Write a sequence for this structure.
């Protein structure tokens, strides 16, 4: 019987010790968690990265929303685009102008004649006072002489204006070159 009592006492003592150890384990604070899935750690890092990206996008959206100007109507947007187009045409007239000409020699006058058209391909701007340069070239295409002429005409958008220039050519010239070098924007009557 003594052995039975001592076995009972051992089992009771073991149960008490296990209970005390489990209570201490439960209230002992943080424990290192066992990672069952090795991808779980990388998944949590990905989640943190996604959260950081979302926060950055929200901050960027807030800075973009600081523009307090109301959205433009279709008509206002059209007017703004027309103003921008007109400004671009005004600043770079030679990109919208071209010249086409014929060359003849007037025997009775003893002069070279250049006649043709100046084309305005701009859609908004009207130009005026076109400066045309005639360059006389030698047989080797070396410039011998250059003369400039101003054509005092208005040229509306998507139209053409005629011109005629007569000049005396230097001796020894074989070739010529005619080019439009300047034009002024016409602002209209005010």
């Amino acid at each position: 019987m003594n052995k039975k009592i001592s076995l009972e006492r051992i089992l009771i003592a073991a149960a008490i010790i296990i209970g005390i150890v489990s209570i201490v384990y439960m209230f002992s604070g943080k424990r290192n968690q066992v990672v069952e899935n090795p991808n779980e750690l990388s998944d949590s890092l990905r989640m943190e990265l996604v959260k950081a990206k979302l926060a950055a996008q929200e901050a960027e959206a807030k800075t973009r929303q600081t523009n307090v100007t109301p959205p433009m109507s279709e008509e206002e947007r059209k007017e703004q685009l027309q103003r921008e187009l007109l400004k671009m045409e005004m600043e770079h007239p030679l990109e919208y102008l071209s010249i086409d000409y014929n060359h003849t020699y007037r025997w009775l006058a003893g002069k070279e004649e250049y006649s043709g058209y100046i084309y305005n391909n701009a859609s908004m701007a009207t130009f005026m006072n076109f400066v045309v340069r005639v360059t006389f070239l030698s047989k080797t295409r070396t410039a011998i002489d250059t003369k400039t002429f101003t054509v005092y005409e208005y040229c509306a958008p998507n139209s053409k204006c005629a011109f005629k220039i007569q000049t005396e050519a230097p001796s020894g010239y074989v070739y010529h070159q005619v080019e439009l070098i300047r034009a002024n924007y016409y602002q209209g009557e005010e």
